[in-house]
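Appendix B. Raw example, untouched.
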Amino acid sequence: MTDLNFTRWNKILGWLVFLISLTTYWLTVEPTASFWDAGEYISTASKLEVGHPPGAPLYQMMGAFFSIFASEASQVAYMVNLMSVFASAFTILFMFWSIVLLLLKVAGPVEEISPAKKMAVLGSAFVGSLAFSFTDSFWFNAGEAEVYAMAAFLMAILFYLGLLWERDMFAPRGNRWVILISFIVGLSFGVHFMGLLTIPAIGFLYYFKNFSKITVKNFIIANLVVVAVLLFIFKMLLPYSLSLFSATEVFFVNSLGFPFHSGTIFTALVVIAAFYFGIKYTRKKHFYQLNTLLLCILFIFIGFSSWLMLPIRANANTVINENNPANARELLAYYNREQYPETHLFYGPQFTEMYSGLDEETPYVDDKPKYEMDREAGKYVIVNDYKNAKQNTDDDHKAILPRMWSTEHAANYMDFTGPLEFTVKPEYQGEEQLLNAVNNFQQKYNRGEIDNQQYDAFLKQFREYLDVEKPSFASNINYLFEYQIGYMYWRYFMWNFVGRQDDIQGKYTDQNGNWLSGIEFIDEARLGSQDQLPTDVKNNKARNTYYFLPLLLGLLGLVFQFSKDKKNFWVLLVFFLFTGIALKIYLNERPFEPRERDYALVGSFYVFAIWIGFGVYALFEIVKDFLLPKIAVPVVVVASLLAAPVLLASENWDDHDRSGRYTALAMAKMYLDSLDEDAIL
């Protein structure tokens, strides 16, 4: 296989996995709206309306484009669903090419390796990318109108562009890739923030390319810098830019008496001028790195400009206009999701705050003022009573890394912490009736007559008289690893590479929602005997078993890459951790969420599927010592195809085939049919 042939076959096989994926997803896509947010996304996309915060304007504009091709109104949902089909297929295309680039770092330059190795590289990428295309969570996202399919596509193209940038970094105009990366990062804000989690991995591609000697010091600094870049873009660059527009708008209108939007226009002109003169000056003075940095920030803003759709359409008073982000101030509140409850990642209250009352010294604090246009007054007016409007809970119940924070899930938290310790307050210890009630309650609990729901109810009823201890730091960390990471990440991971028990939401029991391997003694040890199960359990279409084969292939690839290419192993590991474990820490999930949350973790499953590709190549390296290389390649590739993509596709097809599913639509119609004429919903 010549170099030219390799390049040609790289393109051919890339487009082949694209066509296989596209055909699969098209055949199995849902023909109409599915449950949860899909109906809203279809409606807001087809008519370019304003959905729930923090918005997905680029997704909606792309959905509007796809809906143009609907032959009639009833086909709009189908066409918007097809957008996820195409986005997912393109994800597989760029994944294939990414695996090829990564494998060549192990196999060697194309011009130096043997034809058998070239075929092994392409075959390994073929297996790895197809394996991911048939995984449970990614395939599910590909069949409905949700943002996660397009977010995965942006993530895949960002990582591929990062590899191209790393390859061409020292070539003339090599930095064109980082400018394109910046533009895609900006576009990600118009779909889902998940795409930003590629940034640390791309940062390490830059680090390893520019630092031939890795020391403990520069390695630690590199880790801190890549996280800082992510936080700068996600938490500072765009939020503070919106804050600047918001503050200037209110100042120009309220203090200077200018018309609405004048402050926004002024700030936009200042920003444009700053970039123009900054880029011109750095180019003139040959400050190339600063010039590139300014271009990157500029292109992030250009990508982010899809957000202009939201105030434009909000001012058009569309039928669906959630939160009405019609101006800079309200757009900032929309971006910051101010309507949702506040969560605390590093320090804050725990769920036991509801038993303790408010802080004695400062029971109330100011809330955020909510500004709205008053067209008659020609000003922005504060429409909420924000002074001392927010309860300030007892500081004694605040903690570092508050994992158990939701007051609505107290009983479920106690499944992990055990019963909360409490004592009668000193001033009430002489109340005999109270003490008897407490003693009777404790005796009933010890006899097993009281469950956690009743325990929670008792603490709420008597909280005025009790001092309830907050969960310890150890309890929070235990909950983090046992539930948030163990149950809400590794369980989903095993669904995708080992097998799944059913499609019924898990509630931390053996009955539903667990991973299942198909290997009898392992499943029995975890879930009990699987022999005498009811027919409906055995015949659940989502009861899929892969016998650990995709997992073992991925683990082999992980070990192989670590042994051969530690630098790029770290790149993938960081990518894997940020799109999986770190995301779970950030989301700080409660027991139990309204639905399973595996759909947001496809980035980490994407990385593991790359390791499946490495596993195939590792098998080739082993088998070629026993067979001729030209024979070893087809043997390994065919065996791996059967062990991963074919097995995954055959097991998952029936429960992922949504081509005849109209459940959500039928249920919605039944709800409406049950109403009287002119009823108010």
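End of appendix B.
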